[in-house]
Amino acid sequence: MRIPLDYYSILGVPIQASTEQVDQAYSDRTQQQPRPEYSEVAIAARKQLLDDAHAVLSDPEQRAEYDAHFFSQTYQSQPNLQNESQLEQLESHTSWIEIDDDQLAGALLILQQLGEYELARRWAESYLSSSSSLSPESGKRETSQRADIVLTLALADLELCRERWQQGEYEKAASFGQSGQDLLSQECLLPELRGEIEADLYKLRPYRIWELLAQSDKSPTRQGLQLLQQMLEERGGIDRTGDDRSGLSVDQFLRFIQQIRGYLTTTQQQELFEAEAKRPSAVAAYLAVYARIAGGFAYRQPALIAGAKEMLRRLGKQQDVYLEQAVCALLLGQTEEASRALELSQEPELLAFIREKSLDSPDLLPGLCLYGEHWLQTEVFPHFRDLANQQASLKDYFADEQVQQELEELLASIELQNQAAAVESPPQESEQAKRKWITPGVSEQAAAQAHHAEKAVSASTTTTQMATMEPPSGVSTQFTPSQGKQNSPRGSAPKPTSNRPRKRKKPSTSPDSEGRVAGKKMRRDRSRRKRSMRQLLLGFASLLGVAAVGFIAVGAYQRFQNASQLEGEQPSVGINQPPLAIPPPDPQKSVTENLLTPETARRVIQTWLSTKSQALGPDHQIQRLDNILVDPMLSVWRDRASYIQQNNIYRTFQHEVTVKRVNTSEEIPNQARVEAVVREVSKFYEQGQLDRSESYDDKLRVQYDLMRQADQWQIREVQDVEILQEG
Length: 727
Fold this sequence. Notes:
By secondary structure, the chain is α+β, with helices and mostly antiparallel strands. Helices cover 55% and strands 10% of the residues.
């Protein structure tokens, strides 16, 4: 058969190489050992090709004759090629040599060592495809080199995976790696190499997520989110230490999350981080707050902001989130509460800036408006795919009719609940009572969020602030987000008594009639609230207009950064600087550790049981025993398999394996003893007919003695310790 190689490439020398260079290259190549998984047949075939190349190129007469043909050769169609792509690959070369069929494994081994991975892969696939349709007689003759060609194909997949990884083509890299892993699993070969590919696929997963989410199509985004969910499940949460086998520490994983946030929309982030916050996770809850604030502001949904404010109230027990609470209160029109939250913040630089921009105002509202708008524009929107190019405008937000209507409904529901609570004065408000006074048109969820968020503020204070835009002269220093009730703010701000319910010692009406009275009062107040909202909008517009020029000139924007950070220092990761170093291509790399692990032990035992099924099965692939067994066990099972083949009988097997114990020693790291529970279901066939009397279903406790040779674990001896179930 023809193979796309030439003697110069086999030895790795240029055409102009001298005889001394040829001799030196031959010496170097013969000393270069292939991976130990290759069989002696493949290694001998490789050596024969090296000898042939050296014999021709080291003899002047033979070399001159070879060169004459070498420079005039053109490729012809190869009859065994399966498709046009293989022919195109073949035609890209300018020389070939004739080899015997049993030298194919050695030739592909040389191609693999030369780095011709694509070419080796195509020829290996072509061989495996054609050999699968061979007759049983020819199949037996070809099986001896099938395992070597499978190894070459898997190694080519591994190296192509790493090449694409380094080139930034992460999905293509994963495709090659998965192909190699599937091949080895299907062939039940080389568990160590399979583990090596699997380790690379786990480390590749964060890069795949980044690449998939960066695409604009919905399908890759869904796939990227699924991979991310898998990693989160394996880690146990966004800030947990579970092993997802990516090699990322908690800090590195948080950097990775920050890196991919810009490729997710507000809705995607809200769903993702709210689900993670239930584990629970303060980091995920904080990121969910950002998603709610961003979506609520950008898409004019104050109910989302009310939910974010409630989440911040819970987070406030663990960290300082008063600035975020102030912004939420501002966006909900609760200016007095926003001012109180500012006073409690522990961010002196930001407070100084806000006070500086509020010098001509009786409160901190002007500076908070400027800070809030800038914070949304520079620290919130850039982290959302759907908001990256959107402008944050408080003026447009409060001018929106939908926002005005929802804010009025939220405030109305709050005041009505407070009035009902003041009349009934229950010792503890039940969930049914919380829902009793929901205003028509307001969802139960929004009303409940608003109720919890505003529980600390009296309705009269909020209504007065919205109506008059006059802040209280003082702020109660006893206010904390976790308080159930709040004393009225100190000061002389006007408080209309008509909007302040009074607790009566002897109510003249029943609770139901009092509720109707309160409802009428709320309807009378709605027109006043509309005028108040317009006044608030005009106030924001004038404040923003007067201070815009001064704010743009301020060079203190760096002081805003702390407000958007996760707990602790939030690192910055560049897109072109991945958090993990990409492993360099290394054909000798192995994930084998110094001592045998339970997972590796399970794979070795599973490989042995699969090999036994093939050796004793209808195809009698006895030669595969060499890949997993060593003497004395190898000789014993060769004899058994040969006897079964000669007597025209065979067995089929099904296995279940559970590793119970692995005993290793640092003094003898290349030996191990494994105890496992194995269930073996076997059916016996003679002359093609099932013999039930020789079939069985047993559950055994088995002891395996393993030995590592050439970095591969093999089984030396097996002993049945105990029959747990016999059938």
